[in-house]
Amino acid sequence: MTGAASPHPLRSRLRSLRPAAFGADPVGERMERIRRSPNFADGVFQNPLGARTRPSGSTLEFAKIYFQKEARRHRGPVAPVPLHAATLADLAKAPASGLRLTWMGHSSVLAEIDGRRVLLDPVWGQRCSPFPFAGPKRLHPVPLPLASLGPVDVVVISHDHYDHLDLPTIQALASTDTQFVVPLGVGAHLERWGVSEGRLRELDWNESTQLDGLRLTATPARHFCGRGLRNQQHTLWASWVVEGPSGHRVYHSGDTGYFPGFKEIGAEHGPFDATMIQIGAYSQYWPDIHMTPAEGMDAHLDLQGGRPHGVMMPIHWGTFNLALHPWAEPGEWTKDAAEEAGQTAAFPLPGQPFEPAGNVPTDPWWRAVSHPIQHPWRRPTTLEAPADPRSSGLDLAGDR
Question: pTM of whole model > 0.85?
Fold first, then answer.
């Protein structure tokens, strides 16, 4: 996949000095395939709908709020986050319905579907950062050691940000015989970390692959990519549709802002038995690339043909503090949004398996370990317009 093209010797040497966690840039045949993608233009992958991936407003204003000690304290839990003490024995018994989901925290989910085991966005590391001594740290331990998870048929990655693609986790999985299905370009990181080319499948949006009876389809998302000091923007981001051999279907959003494409995905691949929808790390500073819980519920309904159906499980919350909102606010807001929509939403403890066709966990467990939640979404507010983004020195990727 890497091709025969040789990079410039100096550039190659500089790449070799980068921290391993930064991964690798696509080169050779992999880069040629990226250039042929209809979603790649002007040297970068493009979003399905225009998105500002650079935070709007003042960098100084954002930093003051984010790093203010008292505000940080109130954004975290007041007691240990409860976990479900999952064991391999819990997961060894096949789900009676043929479909079982286990949320491992943040966006990591084990989906057992028609006798196959799919691990989505696995992050077992202590920090979502290239460095073990800095960066957002877990609010709770992993509920189950990776080695105790049992055999995994396929690992699916949504994009290459650190809270979705974790070096130590991938290195551990590389020592097994699991297969990996990733968006275009992401395979370069995995190959650097020890995953052989023969175990990798890279997909563009709306491409599918068959693997041991599973059908996996990369679908569009509204986000961006990058692991290095400068975003090369040569790796794709995606949401995923997974269909089992007996017809169960699930959807994993990865990271995304709201966009009309959810309706198209639902029309093409839905309805779904369950969706796993990003509802955390939202902010007025980056409204185009992360959804609020209300937008996440709208996305679920779009995916289900415009009506309540199946089970919506919120992801991308409760494990890392990546935005200015309190850690438990996404759960509370999602619960409100689900009740308003008449939609079943699952709120498992980290590590708690459940079957969407069975008893769905709905207890608001976070209330016992969080500061009082203010419910700002229940009160109409007028947000002050962010400052001209050109005055900001904080640049994640720019406009796409």
Answer: yes
